[in-house]
Design goal:
The chain has three helices and 16 strands. The chain is an alpha+beta fold and 216 residues long. Helix 1 packs antiparallel against helix 2. It is elongated and about 65 Å long.
């Protein structure tokens, strides 16, 4: 992550931008004796800090491991080509309670970050992958390419990528975030062996989605 994006090891810097105002307003209401609005505002401020948490993760060192790019639940595993070489799509649904920082699933060089404006369908709908606002991030390794999408949803209205084309990333390195819940799709090479199942909870940068004997 570029210098300045993160304020500390466990919090995304944006937490202060969005969390301090409601906390300050809540403190002012409390000083005036307005307990009910003070409670609502303080709760909102604390929730914002919770939402923007960014915990450290134990990155697997196993050769060929493809880690989850996001926290959430697996809602779909399908054979769906992104191009001639990538045939498996795994979809991760992020609820509003999940960590919203995304991580690189493999080590490699970022070949491209392409932003597409779009709609804001509910993240669990299949149309969201095609039509919602999204970033498409392509990762090249010496052996092949992995592609994943940060997809906005009905609540999440902002996808952020902290990397640029040409950047070299390590497996599990932070690459961006989606504000307030949505989904991440990842396309894997045909030779990859998917090891997760539908409904399984995963952690970004830590849970192994698949094994790929050619992956760095």
């Amino acid at each position: 992550m570029p210098e300045g994006e993160r304020a500390c090891a466990t919090m995304v810097k944006e937490a202060y931008k969005f969390g301090i105002p409601p906390l300050a307003a809540g403190a002012a209401c409390l000083a005036l004796g307005w307990k009910w609005p003070a409670g609502v505002l303080i709760f909102l401020g604390l929730f914002v800090f919770y939402f923007f948490r960014d915990p450290e993760r134990m990155i697997p060192s196993a050769a060929g491991a493809v880690v989850s790019p996001a926290d959430g639940h697996i809602i779909e595993i399908v054979d769906e080509p992104f191009d001639a070489n990538m045939g498996h799509r795994v979809t991760i649904f992020l609820s509003i309670w999940d960590v919203h920082v995304q991580r690189a699933p493999v080590a490699g060089r970022i070949a491209g970050v392409v932003y597409h404006p779009g709609r804001f369908y509910a993240a669990w709908r299949s149309a969201a992958s095609r039509e919602n606002e999204q970033n498409i991030i392509s990762l090249e390794t010496p052996q092949g390419t992995v592609v994943f999408k940060q997809i906005a949803g009905a609540i999440a209205r902002r996808v952020l990528c902290w990397k640029r084309a040409g950047d070299v990333v390590a497996r599990g390195e932070r690459v961006g975030m989606i504000r307030f819940g949505s989904r991440v799709d990842i396309w894997l090479p045909q030779e990859a062996h998917v090891t997760v199942r539908r409904g399984q909870k995963v952690k970004g940068g830590e849970s192994i989605l698949a094994t790929w004997t050619s992956t760095a």
